[in-house]
Amino acid sequence: MTAETSTSIESAKAGGRSLTAIVLAAGKGTRMRSDLPKVLHAVAGRTMLGHVLAAAGEAGANRIAVVVELGQGTVASEIARAAPGASVHPQVERLGTAHAVLAARAALEAGSDDVVIAFGDTPLITGATLTRLRAPLADGAAVAVLAFTAENPTGYGRVLTQSGRVLAIREEKDASESERAVTLCNAGLMALSGTHALALLTRIGNDNAAGEYYLPDAVALAVADGLDVAVVPVDEAEAQGVNDRVQLSVAEATIQARLRRAAQIGGATLVAPETVFLSFDTVLGRDVLVEPHVVFGPGVTVGDHCVIHAFSHLEGATLAQGVSIGPYARLRPGAVLEAGSRIGNFVEMKNARLGEGAKANHLTYLGDAEIGPGANVGAGTITCNYDGVNKHRTTIGAGAFIGSNTALVAPVSVGAGAIVGAGSVITASIPDDALAIARSRQRIIEGVAGGMRAALQAIKASRSKKDD
Ligand code: UD1
Ligand code: CA
């Protein structure tokens, strides 16, 4: 099985501590140069915000609060879809990360043992990491900081320590030269104990180079109060934020590497993994073989022992065991392929079920259709499902044979075991076991071909003389 797996999340939930997750998603994302709010850009088939909300859920959040830019209705509807119980808090002015957290003050006031703060534009963060981040709170820490050691720390807040103890986080703009040399960087995400969260956050001021209320200032305040501050390590790649489309593609590459690896570890062979694109929810069974250049959009489940030949594109499709598709197959939402069925090159399926052992091997469109077990759909068959206004269904019975180049004008049904002659245009339903032929009858006119050819050659010769 693939799909991003999150490990041992249950252990933290089992601790019985309640968790409020606050996701900061305000900001226009100007550098994306997009009509779409930044957090709605997708990686691995899911919005960045959707990834972060899922991670919060995996970490056991019983309350999720999202801070959004005022008037971004599309963000609110994505939250309603991805995390139906989450509350939405507009941040009227963008005065810094601590100010943003306090926009969700109502969620903090509701009270919880732990608070985790995540960023909507940091989509690679996993539920497992959020679980590690909150863990020190159970041991009495007031604040836990997620941090990594960067080769090039430029731009990040630096985590300042003295003899192994955290003192403060200093933003780049406010850092002295010696502080800038520090390579331990703040990943931005933070956990606060519910007991101290509001008291710390409301004391954060904006006396700094940017004039912003900095969430990382919670660290120095906690230290001054004699409270414990923990540092939790994370990979820099996992904490990577996305500000422009170059970083969006870097995040995509990172998550693809993760998903491909999980698919391989789960028992699928990816012949050329770097050419296979997976979605966050792709499920591949045991001994699935995926040839090069295959794209899995969201909502695909592939059963054991399936073969996905090269250059296939799947989305919203379910394949039972031992199914073979492609090369160049296209499965659109609602395609269901029962055990042992197969579709070949340039076959498209949409909202259609192919029964057990049924075949459509070449150049075919099956839309809004039900194909019975063992049926054989010949090359160039088209289900004409759309009359320009409405969609209609085609039903093909078990063991039926559809001759090549057949148009099935829906609504229409082909009975079990029936045979349709090649080149037919089927407009009326066919009973079981019947033969249907719907094409113009062939005429033979003997002994005229030679004369016709001579006449055509004469026309050609007279034309080329004129051209001279
Ligand atoms: C932040 C940290 C920095 C850390 C870095 C890691 C602060 C002050 N600094 O800096 O120490 O190294 O992340 O990437 O926290 N946001 C709001 N409303 C605001 C301000 C920000 O919703 O008023 C959201 C942004 O949309 C973004 C997140 O908070 O998702 C982080 O804000 P950003 O301005 O990008 O912080 P950094 O400068 O990256
Ligand atoms: Ca940032």
UniProtKB/TrEMBL annotation:
Question: Boundaries of each MobA-like NTP transferase domain copy?
Answer: 21-160
Give the coiled coil ranges. none
Pathway, per Swiss-Prot/TrEMBL? Bacterial outer membrane biogenesis; LPS lipid A biosynthesis; Nucleotide-sugar biosynthesis; UDP-N-acetyl-alpha-D-glucosamine biosynthesis; N-acetyl-alpha-D-glucosamine 1-phosphate from alpha-D-glucosamine 6-phosphate (route II): step 2/2; Nucleotide-sugar biosynthesis; UDP-N-acetyl-alpha-D-glucosamine biosynthesis; UDP-N-acetyl-alpha-D-glucosamine from N-acetyl-alpha-D-glucosamine 1-phosphate: step 1/1
What does the record note about the cofactor? Answer: Binds 1 Mg(2+) ion per subunit.
Q: Which reaction does it catalyse?
A: alpha-D-glucosamine 1-phosphate + acetyl-CoA = N-acetyl-alpha-D-glucosamine 1-phosphate + CoA + H(+); N-acetyl-alpha-D-glucosamine 1-phosphate + UTP + H(+) = UDP-N-acetyl-alpha-D-glucosamine + diphosphate
Q: Linker: where is this region?
A: 246-266
Q: Where is this region: Pyrophosphorylase?
A: 1-245
User: Where is this chain primarily localised?
Assistant: cytoplasm
- Where along this sequence does the record place binding of acetyl-CoA? 379, 385-386, 404, 422, 439
**Could you say which residues bind Mg(2+) here?**
121, 243
Q: Which PANTHER family match?
A: BIFUNCTIONAL PROTEIN GLMU, NUCLEOTIDYL TRANSFERASE
User: Subunit composition?
Assistant: Homotrimer.
Q: What name goes with this protein?
A: Bifunctional protein GlmU
